[in-house]
Design a protein that fits this description.
single chain; Rossmann fold; 4 domains; 8-stranded mixed beta sheet
């Protein structure tokens, strides 16, 4: 009998924008476009699969009076297997995606907490867009989980188009943080197990621009549509009595809304639906209609450019597009011939608009300068509405597959007008495009077909779950999974605490203790050494790489055998850190000797200071006067380390406690010198070994700090026994 296949837990990440299942606000702004409906429908369809245990779609939690309260709900249950999980990062106010980059590590940390609380780590992680990809990439490293990426749009391609439009690179980067985005995308492409694209064009024309493009594996899986929602227009004509009331109301409202614009509403309707984005080339379509009197005679034009209440309240780029629409309407005197409604309900009204246009014998137009995919083209075709679409991008695949319309050069107005008239004026051509579009959209572009291919791709990835994990002494599972299972932790300094005076026997005893209790207790070191120096000394004493290494006096945190750098910690501590400013401020103190380059780190400056006297006070005075933010540590009567003000061994341990959900009173820390002082204070269980430095005398008598009478590793063991910290002892 074959072993039952494990049902998969899929985590998806679509962080920016306003994301909810009921009545999604498509077109509200630049961040509520096609990606919104894509991820919702993909997650929903995957949740219907027997092979799937659960799908959680992670997005940002927003509490802002300017948006609906729905976006503040931490958990939105769509069905019994699909949830939208909202994680707070970067405060509570809604902000555009370009401003979220500094807060994504916070999103990673809080997702780790969510995973630990839930008690199950993901089997598949899927990041959407660069921000979701960044979060997904880091989580996949922690949990040894296959990582899928869908870019939706890519930074290099966008930057190139904006430069071609005449914008300067510094302006683009200031507004869109485009260079940072491109760097992140390069890293994601290098680390992903699978890139899912909607078209072949994405691979050839967009991903091919990246240096790491040949490293990734690609799969073209077109998005789908809900054929129960986007059904053919003629169903309305023969079976309206069976339709839901909401659909009938949406149809009536759409008709009423359009008719108030048109003198002759019976004419075929040229329909366009898109965001008010310059790249959508809305002005180009209006120019086409305004310059062609024949087209105005035979048809009406309706453009739904997002949702708006007051144009003046929109962002500058959207405002420019909307104002230009009004000016062109006036320039060509298109009153009575052109409609520019202010809003549309995606769930009910948009399908009705396609059917209204189809019933009129009209056409759907997407004249974008470039269209990565073009889901509206599939929706229109499914409703039986022929299309005219830009030849740049995904529509090439759609028209090739569906034979549902004509491709055009978006910069050639006469070509666009000719294509529209060719379809509207030729009944047989219109019928052929309508029929072929309906049939092929139903066959190729469904979410059921999408999910089927998706599952076939990830089955092979899921089969490798755990095989990339860690198989060493202290990590028999991927490090993230291990850390979420732990209930307690031992952190110890290395020099003169864990090692010293030839104490290999005591070290081996301590390691056996930890090995016996490894199911619940983790092992970490917190040292002033750099990561390279730490690895060298651990190897010299035959100490396996711990679960966590806090190195450079707390400036860096690494996890497991793969030495995964905690970028969340790095982001946290570098706030207001200016290394060069501090070096310049201290350059005139001849009593400071800059340590060797191999000891220096970008978030740590190290000096030798032999005779302290009042010199520490002078250093503090100089740095404060220079308005520097810093943390100064002095140890062993000779080592001076200056760190970011948020960094230290103690703060690093508190951060780890927060991130991985291990209470501070379940953490034993041991040390011997001044740079251990902060981690020994507070709620942790502190152990000071007998061979401690003089600066530790001030800690005597403090709560939760035990001064052992034994030295080095023997002192650490003594502290463990004192606190009755470990449940098991070696046989």
């Amino acid at each position: 009998m074959s072993k039952p296949q494990k049902r998969l837990y899929i985590q998806m990440f679509s962080i920016h924008g306003l994301l909810r299942y009921e009545n999604p606000e498509l077109g509200r702004d630049a961040d509520t476009g096609g990606q919104t409906i894509y991820v919702l429908e993909e997650a929903l369809e995957l949740s219907k699969r027997e092979e799937v245990k659960r799908v959680d779609l992670f997005t940002r939690c927003i509490r802002d009076k300017s948006v609906s309260e729905d976006y503040a709900n931490p958990i939105e249950r769509v069905n019994d297997k699909f949830r939208i999980v909202r994680i707070q990062c970067g405060g509570t106010r809604y902000m555009r995606k370009e401003l979220l980059w500094p807060y994504l590590d916070e999103f990673v940390d809080k997702t780790v907490q969510f995973i630990k609380k839930e008690g199950r780590s993901p089997d598949i992680i899927h990041g959407h867009y660069a921000d979701g990809g960044y979060v997904g990439m880091h989580l996949s490293r922690f949990f040894g989980t296959p990582f899928i990426f869908t870019g939706h749009s890519l930074g290099i391609d966008k930057k190139k188009k904006l430069l071609d439009e005449g914008l300067k690179e510094e302006v683009i980067d200031k507004k869109l943080k485009i260079n940072h985005r491109i760097h992140i995308e390069e890293t994601i492409i290098k680390n992903t197990n699978l890139v899912i694209t909607s078209t072949k064009q994405e691979i050839k024309k967009q991903y091919n621009l990246y240096a790491n493009n040949t490293i990734a594996k690609y799969s073209v899986i077109p998005p789908g549509i809900n054929i129960d929602t986007f059904y053919p227009y003629y169903h309305n004509q023969v079976s309206s009595f069976t339709r839901e009331e909401e659909g009938l109301q949406a149809q009536a409202f759409a008709m009423e809304d359009l008719n108030r614009f048109f003198i002759h509403p019976e004419k075929p309707l040229i329909l366009s639906l898109c965001r008010p984005d310059k790249r959508k080339n809305i002005s180009g379509l209006i120019h086409v209609f305004g310059e062609d009197k024949e087209l105005q005679t035979i048809a009406n034009l309706a453009i739904y450019a997002g949702i708006r209440k007051d144009i003046l309240e929109k962002e500058e780029t959207e405002k420019d597009v909307l104002i230009e629409m009004l000016l062109l309407l006036d320039k060509y005197d298109l009153y009575g011939k052109m409609a520019i409604p202010k809003k549309h309900d995606f769930l009910h009204m948009v399908p009705e608009l396609y059917r209204i246009a189809a019933a009129s014998g009209g056409v759907f137009v997407n004249a974008a300068l470039n269209e990565p995919f073009g889901i509206t083209l599939i929706e229109a075709s499914s409703c039986g509405l022929p299309i005219v679409a830009t030849k740049n991008g995904g529509p090439q695949d759609i028209v090739e597959n569906c034979k549902n319309g004509i491709l055009v050069d978006p910069n050639n107005r006469k070509e666009i007008a000719k294509a529209i008239k060719a379809i509207i004026s030729d009944h047989d051509k219109w019928v052929n495009y309508s029929k072929s579009g309906r049939m092929q959209a139903k066959s190729i572009y469904t979410w059921q077909a999408h999910a089927q291919k998706y599952m076939s791709e990830i089955t092979s990835l899921a089969a490798h779950i755990g095989k990339t994990g860690f198989r060493k002494r202290y990590a028999s599972v991927p490090i993230g999974k291990r850390l979420t299972m732990l209930e307690s932790f031992l952190f110890t300094d290395i020099d003169n605490t864990l090692i010293g005076n030839g104490n290999s026997r005591a070290i081996e005893t301590l390691l056996k203790l930890l090995d016996t209790n490894r199911d619940k207790t983790g092992f970490g070191v917190a040292t002033g050494r750099t990561i390279d120096s730490t690895l060298t000394i651990l190897k010299e004493y035959d100490i396996p790489i711990p679960d966590i290494i806090i190195s450079s006096v707390g400036a860096e945190i690494y996890y497991g055998e793969d030495l995964l750098l905690d970028t969340g910690w790095e982001t946290h501590i570098t706030n207001n850190w200016d290394r060069e400013k501090i070096r310049n401020a201290l350059s005139k103190f001849d009593f400071l000797e800059y340590q060797e380059e191999e000891t220096q780190r970008k978030n740590k400056i190290s000096y030798y200071l032999e005779d302290e006297k009042d010199r520490i006070a002078q250093i503090h005075h100089k740095l404060v006067k220079s308005k520097c933010r810093y943390n100064l540590l002095y140890s062993h009567g000779q080592f001076l380390d200056i760190l970011p003000h948020r960094a230290s061994k103690g703060k690093a341990i508190r951060y780890i406690s927060y991130k991985w959900g291990v209470p501070l009173d379940k953490i034993v820390v041991s040390g011997d010198s001044g740079n251990d002082e902060e981690m020994l204070r507070g709620e942790t269980l502190g152990v000071v070994v007998a061979n401690y430095s003089n600066e530790m005398e001030k800690l005597k008598g403090l709560k939760n700090i035990y001064f052992s009478r034994k030295k080095f590793a023997d002192g650490v063991i003594d502290g463990i026994v004192h606190y009755k910290f470990l449940e098991k002892t070696p046989c």
